[in-house]
Amino acid sequence: QQDQPLAKQLDETALAVISPNGHANDQHWVGSLLADLNHSSAVGVFLLSNDADVTRKMLSHHHGPFLCIPEGSDPAHLASQFAAASTMQGVIGKLRDELSRVRRDTAKATSTIEEMDEEMRLAARLQRDFLPRRLPEVGKARFGVLYRPVSWVSGDIYDIVQLDETHV
Fold first, then answer.
1. How far apart are CA 142 and CA 91, in angstroms?
2. Is 139 left (phi over 0), alpha (psi -120 to 50) or beta?
3. Mean pLDDT, to the nearest integer, of 94-105?
4. Helical H segments across 5-74, by residue range
């Protein structure tokens, strides 16, 4: 249909039979068609002439739901290929639904992980804030510490308190 963009037409069909009609070696046309196919749920069935070298080359590097059939194939061969493409469309639809579900779950998991990471950063800051900033000095004795948790936080908490002039 000439009055609708190709992408919209592809969204409305399960099987798209494509005959390049003189565009088989037009890299821009084929690339645009493949991009539209990628964003649709249609399975593309390409009817290709022997001289459709550009289309064949581009399809060999393209990952997507399509079949190539030699132009002029007999009706029985066409029918079997259309049946196979139709079967592919159902499987592809299920895979796309599953991929959408996985993407949603991944986004939710990423959000949860980011929240947990922020909470752990806060816990680490709070734990560091509980540790003494200055350690007491008793005569010539000086205290030094190194706090290095394995992860964000540690189970080790320390404190040094001066009890009197000679005891800590």
1. 72
2. left
3. 90
4. 6-11, 27-38, 53-60
